[in-house]
């Protein structure tokens, strides 16, 4: 059997986005479109134009939904979110080659944990935001907020803080993602597997990236040591 991890200059570690990466669509956007609370358009616009931080915007979006919708929102996501092909195979590949795999998501625990339940990822390898349904409206909590080194600020779930726990003289850091919550982390890692907006961003900034469609594509590149050519 080949030993792909030995083709990396240092021990590889994967940080994988959830919404629009592990799942085929962005679940938060889908939920907000479906339940369409008044005022939502404005908030989405402000997040995209960076007028609002991700943390502020996501907090405000969920605060538009009553806590009583919890089960309905979760059921909607569970029934509509598809998992991108090759995801179980990538997890298997990581296990086989002793490559740590972390889910780093700007999404929310109450739909991420149930969606990931079939895949056997340890809880402490899943970083996401929390939720509180004790009030009238849904309140998002931020157990993994930015550390003092994050110059992005207002990440909510700070991917750069998670990535920094793996020093780059020891680890070959690889980020997998698609969109705005991945922009700050992409600047920090050795290699990005990108889709959608993140591909455009990496191109603009000249960051080392490999566009992908399925996780099978990623496995193939990891087998070759993640080389981009
Ligand atoms: Mg995403
Ligand atoms: Zn941050």
Biggest sheet strand order reads 4-3-2-1-5-6-7
Helical run tally? 10
Ligands, ions, cofactors: magnesium ion, zinc ion
Helix content: 25-40%
Largest sheet data = 7 strands, mixed
Assembly classification: single chain
Rounded radius of gyration (Å): 17 Å
- In total, the number of domains comes to 1
Q: Structural class from helices and strands? A: alpha/beta
Q: From N to C, what is the helix and strand string?
A: EHHHHHEHEEHEHEHEH
**CATH homologous superfamily caption:** HAD superfamily/HAD-like
The dominant shape is globular
Uncertain residue segments: none
Share of β-strand residues: 15-25%
- The CATH topology is Rossmann fold
Report the top-level CATH class. Alpha Beta
Mean pLDDT: 94
- N-to-C CA distance: 23 Å
Tally of extended strands?
7
CATH-level-2 architecture: 3-Layer(aba) Sandwich
Keywords: Amino-acid biosynthesis, Hydrolase, Methionine biosynthesis
Family: Belongs to the HAD-like hydrolase superfamily. MtnX family.
InterPro entries: HAD-like_SerB, HAD-like_sf, HAD-SF_hydro_IB_MtnX, HAD_hydro_PyrdxlP_Pase-like, HAD_sf
EC number: 3.1.3.87
Question: Would you mind describing this structure in some detail?
Answer:
The protein has ten helices and seven strands. The radius of gyration is 17 Å and the shape is globular. By secondary structure, it is α/β, with parallel strands linked by helices. The model has no long low-confidence stretch (mean pLDDT 94). It has one domain (4-28, 80-223): Rossmann fold (3-Layer(aba) Sandwich). Strands 4-3-2-1-5-6-7 form a seven-stranded mixed sheet. The structure holds magnesium ion and zinc ion. The site of zinc ion (ZN) has 7 residues, from helix 7.
